């Protein structure tokens, strides 16, 4: 079973992920993330921090996804394991659909085509939804901000996420990310336990 966590920067996704690694330690889950695969992950991080060409960035995110699938996700799913990934392909549809504007005639079509035939759709996706203004307030408290962390940009990213929900409502669970981290963690932990026990 493949479970993903998604949300704009500052939505509390990483805090949730960390909490789940502690709370669900008994379930033998494979915890993983995108971007972050060996060799490509470093190149992606560098591309993000240097605000490089959007085409380079998008290609690296896709390459990272391919390595992630080949080395982590596919083997774990074949083994019958539960996989929880902090970000996955929905991040590409939410973020690169914006950054690729002007570089591809139809970024959404390019993103759809580039994943077709080899990527795996998650069984369940928790989407943290938060007013972008609040998300910016949270990330600006962390010090240096990445180029993705601008209010107008994050507004559009969140819109794209919500479009994805409309296209596949049964896959998504929406979470009000203004709730306390503890409340969110309790809810997601309970949902994952219920879903995985029902399998
Ligand atoms: P992180 O904040 O979860 O570490 O992710 C790093 C940034 O990369 C974040 O701003 C979202 C962005 N991102 C994309 O733009 N496209 C992608 O496909 C992924 C996985 C992340």
Order the strands across the largest sheet as they lie in space.
2-3-1-4-5
Tell me the fraction of residues in β-strands, as a range. 5-15%
**Ends apart, CA distance between termini:** 9 Å
| Strand segment count | 5
Largest sheet: 5 strands, parallel
User: Which small-molecule ligands are present, each listed once?
Assistant: thymidine-5'-phosphate
Please give the share of residues in helix: 55-70%
Oligomeric composition of the shown chains = single chain
Account of the 3D structure:
The structure is a single chain. The protein has helices at residues 13-23, 40-49, 54-78, 89-99, 107-115, 132-140, 151-167, 181-198, and strands spanning 2-7, 30-33, 83-86, 124-129, 172-176. By secondary structure, the chain is an alpha/beta fold. The chain has a five-stranded parallel sheet, sandwiched between helices. Helix 3 (54-78) packs antiparallel against helix 4 (89-99) and helix 6 (132-140) crosses helix 7. The longest helix has 25 residues, at 54-78. The N and C termini lie close together (9 Å).
